[in-house]
Specification:
Layout lengths: L4 H9 L5 E4 L9 E4 L6 H14 L1 H12 L3 E3 H4 L16 H10 L3 E3 L3 E4 L7 H24 L9 E6 L2 E9 L15 E8 L10 H13 L5 E7 L4 H9 L3 E4 H5 L1 H15 L1 H7 L1 H14 L7 H15 L4 E10 L2 E10 L3 E8 L7 H20 L8 E8 L5 H13 L4 E5 L1 H11 L2 H11 L4
Parallel strand pairs: 8-9, 9-10, 13-14, 14-15
Antiparallel strand pairs: 1-2, 3-5, 4-5, 6-7, 7-8, 11-12, 12-13
Helix pairs in contact: 2-3, 6-10, 10-12, 11-12, 11-13, 13-17, 14-15, 16-17
Length: 454
């Protein structure tokens, strides 16, 4: 028997004490009902996400955007993968409000740098870091391509920036003659907008964020002139059709930059995901990847060598240690830090900080490393039974060297520290220790990739 809307509302108003409702999220003023015993369970989270998909799509797209990035994403990046305005827009909840809703629902958590999914067992931190790196590389390369062909104004692009209240991975003005408008004496440019989804196996849902953004922009600002690009790694014809039917230019990286480019790009992804095993057992794969990066000028406009420098230090330790991990996340007393290189030897464990800079590390950074990061890692290490009896060594490697003040602080710490040891490496010391240990691959990488004049 069909129940009337009035009777349904009355029943909801007479809910038992163990049934709660969530208001203000779903469309048409609908409420989400749940049993108190289900709150926080896997069943609760799964059902809630399905409810959002059907009744609060803006919220759902943010969940999907984080999930697409393996469960965690840099805070400044997420709005680009949503369909929510980053500035107030009539009739639409802004991005910050939706983030607050999702935090209230315990679906996501926020740290100083990232948004991550809660109640989700698919978080893959190494993959998340890798996908962010290759997306950033590709957007930078697209920017270089677009300005070289005159599609955009040469030095005017902005990244993770807004256009008509919505954020895109890249926004740049275009002065192509047929696109600009001329009200009076002024020249008003069109804009090139670029977003990116590089996975090979994407779904229709994974591209909805850009479609919805553009729909809203067109409805709210009918005079806006723009050329939207979505950079993709897929060759799925159904995805192509969906994007093209919505007026979006499909930029397949194989076709834009060549198959060797995309193979190298996904080689970078694979290296960052499986760095520990590759650097210990198959270092030639890393060497070959570096050579391809140089040949194809990948990372020319993005600090790729900074991201890959920790791999070089991993290569150094990987040829000597028993076990190796790259970008190891350590949590102790609710404090979370990341060590670039974690190398386990028979008699000691090494925690290395790696900076592929072209400028020296300053004293403030060293002070924070010594006083905040090392104590957290030290306490964690002392609590691990598997590390009992092993010496603790903390290293900091920087291709740009160290300021005079930071050297003084590091030298003093070396002399006064008794419970663990501290070492610091500039380029000269790196080359020296590589020769001493006969780590030929490491010396070659430093010489050819970080010391161009050598």
């Amino acid at each position: 028997m069909k129940i009337t809307e009035i009777n349904a509302r009355k029943r909801i108003q007479r809910l038992p004490e163990n049934i709660f409702k969530i208001k203000g999220i779903c469309k048409n003023n609908q409420s989400i009902l749940y049993h108190i015993d289900k709150w926080g369970t896997e069943e609760f989270y799964t059902g809630l996400v399905e409810v959002l998909k059907e009744n609060a799509y803006q919220h759902y797209l943010i969940i999907n955007g984080i999930s697409y990035h393996y469960g965690t994403i840099l805070k400044e990046k997420l709005a680009s993968f949503s369909a929510s305005p980053i500035k107030n827009s009539r009739g639409h909840k802004n991005f910050e409000s939706i983030i607050n809703d999702l935090k209230t629902l315990k679906l996501i958590k926020e740290t100083a740098t990232h948004y991550s999914l809660l109640g989700y067992d698919g978080i893959r931190e190494k993959k998340a870091k890798a996908i962010n790196a290759i997306e950033s590389i590709t957007i930078a390369h697209f920017h270089e391509w677009a300005r070289n062909i005159g599609l955009i104004s040469y030095d005017s692009a902005k990244f993770d920036s807004d256009f008509s209240r919505y954020q895109f991975c890249m926004v740049a003005p275009s002065y192509i003659k047929s696109l600009v408008s001329r009200p009076g004496e002024r020249i008003v440019p069109a804009f090139v907008l670029a977003d990116i989804v590089l996975k090979r196996d994407i779904t229709e849902t994974d591209v909805q964020f850009i479609i919805k953004k553009l729909e809203k922009i067109s409805m709210q600002n009918q005079s806006a002139k723009f050329i939207p690009f979505l950079l993709v790694g897929t060759h799925n014809s159904d995805i192509y059709h969906i994007l093209k039917s919505n007026g979006i230019v499909v930029g397949n990286i194989d076709e834009l930059f060549g198959k060797k480019y995309s193979d190298t790009l996904f080689g970078i992804f694979n290296l960052m995901e499986n760095a520990g095993a590759i650097l210990r057992k198959d270092p030639e794969k890393y060497i070959k990847l570096i050579e391809n990066i140089e040949k194809l000028a990948i990372g020319k406009t993005y600090n790729l060598k900074g991201d890959l420098f920790e791999m070089a230090v991993g290569l150094f330790h990987g040829q000597q240690c028993q076990s190796l991990d790259i970008s190891k996340r350590i949590i102790q007393d609710a404090k979370e830090v990341e060590m670039d290189v974690y190398a386990l030897y028979q008699d000691r464990v090494v925690f290395a900080e790696c900076k592929g800079y072209n400028y020296p590390i300053d004293d403030d950074y060293i002070e924070e490393w010594l006083s905040k990061k090392i104590p957290v890692v030290k306490k964690w290490a002392l609590s691990c039974d598997s590390l009992n009896g092993k010496k603790l060594e903390f290293e900091i490697w920087c291709t740009g060297g160290f300021s005079e003040q930071s050297v003084n602080r590091l030298s003093k710490a070396q002399q006064t520290t008794r419970k663990y040891s501290i070492e610091y490496y500039d380029l000269a010391k790196m080359r020296s220790v590589a020769k001493e240990k006969r780590i030929i691959h490491f010396e070659k990488i430093i010489k050819t990739y970080y010391i161009k004049e050598a």
